[in-house]
Structures are given as structure tokens and as C-alpha cells.
Amino acid sequence: MIFIEQAKNISFPEIALLEQAVQAALAQQGFSGDYEITLVLTDDAQLHKLNRDYLGMDSPTDVLSFPSDETDPETGLRYLGDILLSLPRAALQAEQAGHSLEAESQLLVVHGVLHLLGHDHADTDEKTVMWAAQAEILETLGLTHIQVRDD
Predict the structure, then answer these.
(1) What is the C-alpha separation between 80 and 71, in angstroms, rounded?
(2) What's the pTM?
(3) What does pLDDT average to over the chain?
């Protein structure tokens, strides 16, 4: 199950595309079984604060993932964690890259899911694996025109 929360000042009408991105990432990674993920659509201010407080980076960012991998005591389902997406930053990046906000948001959700599943891009080898997975997932979503950025 995917829980989606939108901050008061945020509106994203294509929620189904984000759910598809989560499901495509999980499928590509061979994840099976029931799960829960929370996806929060918010703004730069919230991601800036979280980035500073949890990662020591005093700047806004586009997406943050907080892995959990616990069992929800109420449902008994595996809780993979939270993904927070700055929709204003995604819109800016989409404009700069020349594609839609929907496509950029799907890319960021895929990136977030991969982090929830243990991927990282701290070193070259990890990054190569993660970027290849992202590209494959984007292809299954019909987003072959999206280039995975170097960050």
C-alpha cells in the first residue's frame, strides 16, 4: 500500500503516475510481497530542514528517503519507509531538463524507492549500479527520454 500525503500548498493531480513509479521500482528490484510506503509531496523548506537535521546538509534537495524496513503493528505489513519529494524543486528541474513535472517526479520517486531498498551513490561502483537500475525502471515507465542526472 502506498500512502500519499500532500502539504497544504502542494497539488499534484497525477498521483497514479507516482504509484506506478513505486511499483515499477519494486518490480525491477525483485521485491515481492505486501508493503507500505509513505510518499510525501512537499516543498523546499521542509526538505531543507530535514536535509540539515538528518544529513547535515544545509541546503534544500529534491528527494529524501528514510528507510524503515519494520513491520507495521496495525497491519502486519512490511513498512519500507518514507520518501519526501519537493514538488517546487522537481518543477524547476523538469523545466531545466526540458521534460514534464510528471516525468521528473517519477524519476525522483524511483530514486527514493531505490534508496529505501538499500541502494546508494556514495561511491562510483554503487552509483553505477543505482543509475543502471534507475534507467531500466524509467524505460519500463516509458520515460526513455529522461536522463538520470549526476548529483
Answers:
(1) 9
(2) 0.91
(3) 90
Amino acid at the residue 17: L
DSSP state, residue 2: E
Q: Which residue in 151, 103, 104 sits closest to 131, CA to CA? A: 151
| Domains, the chain | 2-140 (3.40.390.30)
CB atoms < 10 A from the CB of 18, how many?
Answer: 22
DSSP letters spanning 67-129: EEEEE-TTT--EEEEEEEEEHHHHHHHHHHHTS-HHHHHHHHHHHHHHHHTT---SSHHHHHH
Residue in 95, 90, 96 with CA at minimum distance from that of residue 110: 90
Per-residue HEC secondary structure of 70-86 comes to EECCCCCCEEEEEEEEE
How far is it, in rounded angstroms, from Cα 151 to Cα 139? 20
CB 134 within 8 A of CB 114: yes
What is residue 136's predicted lDDT score, i.e. its pLDDT? 93
Has residue 148 got a pLDDT over 80?
no
Other CB atoms within 10 Å distance of the CB of residue 8 = 7
| Other residues' Cβ atoms within 10 Å of the Cβ of residue 103 | 20
